[in-house]
Automatic annotation (TrEMBL):
Source organism, top-level taxon: Bacteria
Protein name: VOC family protein
Similarity section: Belongs to the methylmalonyl-CoA epimerase family.
Keywords: Metal-binding
Keyword Metal-binding among UniProt keywords: yes
SUPFAM superfamilies: Glyoxalase/Bleomycin resistance protein/Dihydroxybiphenyl dioxygenase
Annotated organism of origin: Virgibacillus byunsanensis
Domain VOC: 5-136
Record InterPro entries: Glyas_Bleomycin-R_OHBP_Dase, MeMalonyl-CoA_epimerase, MMCE/EMCE_epimerase, VOC_core
Length: 139
């Protein structure tokens, strides 16, 4: 049985401070985490905001040459970058995708500083939407 649920929405932003201000002061959100990832293929500062039980990740590039968020901003502008779904077991979910002929972007697999394992599905197979699958094996 597939027991997937929305984990968070990733939003590409140009100015992280202004975006945090908007989510906190206009939408009543609370900043619950902020960290920088200099890992190759990530190169972003991430602020996690919780708005009435829903998590939003604000993503700001730290390297305008190699960050995928910088590329996204140049190509599409600011806005929704990805939708992340929590899966109970990432390996099992990936096997299900393989069985269904859905490709993943293997180079995107990583574990974030809080132990969340994640990988992105190939947008060619998801009607153009960037979808992240993630799990929290230590929780």
């Amino acid at each position: 049985m597939k027991d997937y649920k929305l984990d968070h929405i990733g939003i590409a932003v140009r100015n992280l401070e202004e975006s945090i201000h908007f989510y906190e002061n206009i939408l009543g959100g609370k900043l619950i985490d902020r960290y920088r990832s200099n890992s190759k293929g990530v190169e972003s500062e991430i602020a996690t905001i919780e708005v009435n039980g829903t998590r939003i990740e604000l993503l700001s590039p730290t390297n305008n040459t190699t960050s995928p968020i910088a590329r996204f901003l140049k190509q599409k502008g600011k806005g929704v970058h990805h939708i992340a779904y929590y899966v109970h077991d990432l390996e099992e979910a990936l096997e299900n995708l393989k069985h269904e002929g859905i490709r993943i972007l293997e180079e995107t697999f990583r574990t974030n500083p809080h132990g969340r394992r994640l990988i992105y599905l190939n947008p060619v197979d998801t009607e153009g939407t960037i979808i992240e699958y993630c799990d929290y094996p230590d929780q």
